[in-house]
Amino acid sequence: MEVQHTNGKYPINDFKSGESWRLFKIMGEFVEGIDGLHNLGPAVSIFGSARTDSEHP
Question: Would the pTM of this model clear 0.85, i.e. be above it?
Answer without folding.
Answer: no
